[in-house]
Amino acid sequence: xxxxxxxxxxxxxxxxxxxxxxxxxxxxxxxxxxxxxxxERESKLMQRTLVLLKPDCVQRRLxxxxxxxxxDKGYNLIAMKMMRITPELARxxxxxxxxxxxxxxxxxxITGGPVLAAVVEGIDAVDVVRSMLGPTNGRDASAGTIRxxxxxSRQMNLVHASDGLEAAAREIxxxxxxxxxxxYDPTISSWLKAVDE
Length: 197
What we know:
Blueprint: H1 15-45, E1 46-53, H2 55-59, H3 63-73, E2 76-83, H4 87-93, H5 103-110, E3 115-123, H6 125-133, H7 146-150, E4 159-161, H8 165-175
């Protein structure tokens, strides 16, 4: 039983009123702690990932079909813009690959046309979005994945998605200012996942 003694109760409150008050307070506290626990669990599951629809995707007019896959999954697109990746931005994004022999080809490809950059948000978004893409080589990707349905190349693989939480945070900061992120809670959220997920 929780005892709440920081403020005096009105004089008209007898012992039974004090017990009811304490019981009510205890129930409210338990509900608050349960709600806080649910929110903490959801925040751990709720993730953001950077998605780039690459120049081949844009040129092939596949943007709408691919974006609809993420929305159909129940994920939120909380930032999106068309842009051209500069050589400098490409080197920042692909910093771990800059010294590799094949990097100039990658840079030429990713800077060769406009891209659509987006932040996708949802439960386990990093891993789920990557599984939705399929393997890098479209020829190896299963039907039903984005690359399996639309791709047949290793290099022209249509879409980039962050490969981990740290990479996602770094890449989102490279492409978006915090003011460009538009968080929202869709009215259909209660139909997409259970309360305790």
